[in-house]
TrEMBL record:
GO cellular component terms, A-Z: cell outer membrane
UniProtKB keywords: Cell outer membrane, Membrane, Receptor, Signal, TonB box
Cell membrane in keyword set: no
Annotated organism of origin: Massilia arenae
Domain TonB-dependent receptor plug: 53-164
Similarity-based family: Belongs to the TonB-dependent receptor family.
Signal peptide interval: 1-25
Protein's name according to its UniProt entry: TonB-dependent receptor
Compartments where found: Cell outer membrane
Superkingdom, taxonomy of origin: Bacteria
């Protein structure tokens, strides 16, 4: 399952270079101190980074401002992914979330100037995910001065990074050489998939007084880019999404007669895996990022240094998604529910008053092995069709959603002061406030059902689009044909989401010089942070409902399907997905204007309170307190630190809890809320998506009412750490680190509301939070060796181990219950709560790093590779964990030209949201071919990307910069139980940037 071909190539190149290392080392001049090497640009940045890495007590990786200036990077995540052991989650070909050493992004802590930064997400699904991971899509790379990645912890680092901590420092004005200087960059970006240009501009100016005691740095940026993603997937409505097994007892169209001449009987197909749907998706977006940074620094003497930094970034990211999907699973079960429902109550197909079932013709079955090592049979190709002469039945859907007002913004303000009281005592204080907002004002769209007589498909390789062809389903445009084929509107939706994350913190640190034996100095400090997280949805009320015929499932209400205001998929849709000749890559959707006009005309104004959807809300406050003491040590040829940090986490959550039906009544929009005697805290004026149609009497008992249950928990943790650095001589260093770290649980596991109630023969269940979940802790061991055999050169090996306690075990049925309404029979029943529990996990890994210039030439080479083996107690894979990551880079630099080519590899990993819901990665079992095995999550397959940059200097001050990302136009594939089960495949195209920079 774990393909390593790209990685093998990278390793081979590294091995080849290592073979040449002794000769190159002989050419170098190690007797010349690194500090005296006069180089600029890429070479200067490498020297700076390696110098910081070499001097650090802990095991760190470093990236400097020159690195960013010479790399093809548009945000900090792009820059960080070049480092050993660092991987990123990429959406629409832009790196956003950063993870370390084979873990989920939630386990890594990113801080700016020593404090947390509230980030935000631009995409509607991420906006409501309640992840702790920091999205770096708002952080342009040119604000960076230096980023230090701490792989081994120490007591004076802010707690919260279970796998590691990344401290990003921004530029300071007094660090600049000139009194007055700046840079202006003007250019454009070009996205080749949508074929669109956009402006790309940024600039900064620095001034300091003649005495060099006060300075100002101001930076502005305005960067726009067009985005498009073409996809094929198994996504669809109802239970059509994903994969399932053939069951001839319920899929009654599969008979020996229908399979005549194929060599199979109906019994042969039982247990064979088949796709529930064949779908194509098409998303377009414009990301418009604007913002700036202002830094004021006052340093009147060598004893006092005060810096205030303010940063703000916002990104408008309206996006338009389209989907064209089939309904294979529904067709085989003989169901005609136009949104894919397949339960017993779902509407049956109907032909001449009789239920009809789709048949499987011309099946192609292959043998495969699951990710768990079990045999698997997969239906790779087939015709899923109704019997000849059957009238058109439900065969799929088309939808279009326009996310208007999609936006993310992040800002912080910090005041950092350092004062040297005397030769022995230095004190520091850091005050900060930060706020992040992710919002989509209105996620609005229309869904149409498609009617026809069948679909043919043939799955190819994991990285190729499948063959798809519909039968007797009409053209891809809205409206029904006289024979009943075609499209008709069956659903519409509109709601908005807003998540606000904010924090203020205060920190005081002191360092006292001891110079007593091995004890060089003693550091201590305290920190307090008050963090708040709120999230929720709101949605307007529709004027009228959509009524379906209870027998045929067809729309019978007066809900006309708009026949204008639509557009077809572009003619080049899927051109880079390598689909087979003749595959159906067509589709249609309504234009953004058409969608907005339809939703506006079909919704009405009620009240702010009525639009509220309480069941989706998260309302939390988290207070973090910490104190630490750390001794800095030094002996002959060795140094290090030893310390302990105490943290207290106080979590308060107001959890949306359902009220038993009939206990309280809802009030009509515009009316004052009433107090419910049984539940005084009942929120009686919120609509929670309850129908409120024109001309219909208001029903105060419709839907589910909620009240907020307050919870409060306090968790204490002691975090000891030890780091030792030993100079082995001959420019070789060894490091040893041992520490305990914590990572706080995602917000939704602690304080989300109850949702997705359901009942079956085994009882009733509902998802819910677990406020008793303690923070995760990890006991970490890190051992590394590095050899700085020449200027700007290093060979390094690190081995590491982490033993995690408290890793979330999602989807566990607990003993807690709540009384809810069973929607099947409208009676109150006791529901068991599906929630999260905790378990153990382990990570073992090794990292290799090698970089050096090619002798005395202007060429150089960088490379690293990392392997992290993860193991979770319940045997399930760790979400977001890649076993293999690697980078290979080549650079050339002279007085006029600077170029860099970088390949980045990330191995496969479980592709889930970084904040899995209480039922994500379910703990249940699936029976496939008679074998009970764990239910598999979705895997993202390995991917290799290639980026290039070139900078040409016309003069010392005038530079032309070109960069390109995703040069190979990598396809990103996903699968489930095996690579034969393609779940999704998408491409985002290449991005090109051309800028003219003037420095003054």
């Amino acid at each position: 399952m774990f393909k390593q071909k790209p990685l093998a190539a990278a390793v081979s190149m590294a091995v080849w270079s290592l073979a040449a290392l002794p000769a190159m080392a002989q050419e170098a001049t190690p007797e010349v101190p690194m500090q005296t090497v006069e180089v600029t640009g890429i070479r200067a940045s490498l020297a700076k980074s390696l110098s910081v890495k070499r001097d650090a007590s802990a095991n760190v990786e470093v990236i400097t401002a020159e690195d960013v200036g010479k790399m093809p990077d548009k945000n900090l995540a792009d820059s960080l992914q070049r480092l050993a052991g660092v991987a990123v989650r990429t959406d629409y070909d832009e790196a956003e979330k950063v993870s370390m050493r084979g873990t989920n992004p939630d386990m890594s802590l990113i801080i700016f100037n020593g404090h947390a930064v509230s980030s935000a997400d631009w995409y509607v699904a991420d906006q409501g995910s309640s992840s702790r991971s920091t999205s770096l899509s708002l952080m342009p790379s040119h604000v960076l001065q230096q980023a230090v990645v701490y792989k081994s912890s120490q007591a004076n680092i802010v707690d919260g990074g279970l796998a590691g901590t990344i401290n990003v420092t921004t530029r300071k004005p007094l660090s600049q050489k000139e009194r007055f200087s700046g840079v202006v960059s003007v250019g454009a970006s070009y996205a080749d998939l949508p074929g669109r240009y956009a402006p790309d501009m940024n600039g900064s100016v620095t001034w300091k007084n003649e005495a060099g005691t006060f300075g100002v740095l101001a930076a502005l940026f305005a960067e726009k880019r067009h985005v498009r993603r073409d996809s094929v997937s198994r996504f669809a409505y109802g239970t059509n999404s994903g994969w399932d097994v053939i069951n001839t007892s319920t899929m009654k169209g599969i008979t020996d007669e229908s399979l005549a001449g194929t060599g199979y009987t109906a019994a042969d197909l039982n247990g064979v895996r088949l796709p529930g749907s064949m779908s194509s998706e098409f998303v377009e977006s414009v990301r418009d990022r604007k913002g700036g940074m202002l830094s004021l620094q006052f340093k009147p003497n060598r004893d006092l240094d005060v810096t205030m930094t303010g940063f703000h970034s916002s990104m408008d990211a309206n996006n338009h998604g389209r989907l064209s999907s089939s309904a294979i699973y529904s067709m085989l079960l003989g169901k005609n529910a136009p949104l894919g429902g397949t339960t017993a109550a779902a509407v049956n197909t109907s032909h001449n008053g009789q239920q009809v079932f789709a048949q499987i013709r011309n099946p192609v079955i292959v043998d495969e092995t699951t990710v768990y090592g079990h045999p698997l049979k997969v239906l790779k190709a087939a015709d899923i069709v109704f019997a000849d002469g059957t009238s058109p039945q439900y065969v799929g859907n088309s939808e279009g959603f326009y996310r208007d007002g999609a936006k993310a913004e992040s800002s912080f303000l910090d005041l950092d002061a350092k004062y040297r009281v005397n030769d022995d005592l230095t004190v520091k204080t850091l005050l900060s406030t930060t706020r992040g907002v992710g919002q989509t004002k209105l996620d609005q769209g229309l869904t149409l059902a498609r009617y026809g007589t069948g679909i043919s498909y043939a799955l190819g390789d994991l990285h190729d689009a499948p063959f798809v062809q519909y039968h007797n389903a009409g053209a891809n445009q809205p409206g029904l044909n006289p024979d009943g084929s075609g499209y008709t509107i069956v659903d519409r939706a509109a709601s908005g989401v807003k998540t606000v994350d904010k924090e203020w913190s205060a920190q005081f640190d002191a360092e006292y010089r001891l110079d007593r034996g091995i004890f060089q100095s003693l550091e201590s400090g305290v920190r307090f942070a008050d963090h708040k997280r709120t999230s929720g949805r709101r949605g307007p009320a529709f004027r009228n409902g959509i009524t379906l015929d209870p027998v045929t499932g067809r729309v019978i209400s007066n809900t006309p399907t708009p026949l204008t205001g639509w557009q077809a998929f572009p003619g080049d849709f899927g051109k880079d997905l390598d689909g087979p000749a003749g595959w159906d890559n067509t589709g249609f959707t309504y234009t953004p204007e058409g969608i907005k006009d339809y939703i506006a005309s079909n919704t009405k104004v009620t009240s702010d309170a009525w639009e509220r959807r309480v069941n989706s809300e998260i309302d939390m406050q988290e207070r973090q307190s910490a104190a630490y003491v750390m001794a800095n040590l030094e002996g002959e040829r060795w140094s290090g630190n030893v310390g302990v940090r105490f943290t207290r986490t106080e979590v308060k959550a107001n959890i949306a809890t359902p009220i038993p039906a009939g206990a309280c009544q809802r009030v009509e929009p515009g009316q004052a809320p009433i107090t419910c005697a049984a539940y005084p805290g009942a929120i009686t004026d919120a609509g929670d998506a309850t129908a409120y149609f024109d001309g219909m009497p208001f029903n105060p008992n419709a839907g589910i009412l909620y009240y907020k249950t307050p919870t409060k928990r306090t968790f204490d943790n002691w975090l000891p750490s030890l780091n030792l650095r030993y100079d082995m001589g001959n420019d070789m260093l060894a490091r040893f680190g041992v520490s305990r770290t914590i990572g706080r649980q995602n917000y939704n596991l602690l304080g989300s509301g109850f949702g997705t109630p359901g009942c079956d023969a085994n009882g009733c269940r509902v998802t819910g939070p677990n406020p008793d979940m303690e923070p995760q802790t990890a006991d970490n061991l890190d051992l590394s060796w590095s050899w700085y055999f020449a200027p700007r050169s290093i060979v390094a090996v690190s081995v590491f181990h982490s033993s995690i306690d408290g890793y979330p075990k999602t989807g566990a049925v607990g003993s807690s219950t709540v009384d809810l309404l069973d929607p099947r029979d409208q009676t109150v029943k006791t529901f068991f709560i599906n929630t999260a529990s905790q378990q153990g996990a382990k990570i073992n890994g090794i990292e290799l790093q090698y970089e050096q210039p090619f002798g005395k030439t202007n060429f150089g080479f960088t490379s690293n590779v990392s392997r992290a083996k993860t193991k979770v107690d319940d045997g399930r894979p760790m979400v977001g964990a890649s076993e293999w990551t690697g980078n290979v880079g080549l650079y050339y630099e002279d007085a006029k030209l600077s170029t860099r080519l970088v390949a980045n590899y990330r191995g496969e990993y479980v592709n889930s949201t970084t904040a899995p819901s209480p039922t994500a990665n379910s703990q249940g079992l699936s029976v496939i071919n008679g074998i009970a095995m764990p239910t598999a999550p979705t895997y993202a397959d390995a991917v290799t990307t290639l980026a290039f940059s070139a900078n040409y200097y016309f003069t010392k001050n005038l530079e032309l910069a070109f960069s390109a990302t995703n040069l190979t136009n990598a396809k990103r594939a996903q699968y489930r139980y095996s690579e034969e089960e393609q779940q999704k495949l998408d491409v985002s195209g290449r991005q090109y940037y051309l800028n003219l920079r003037y420095k003054f």
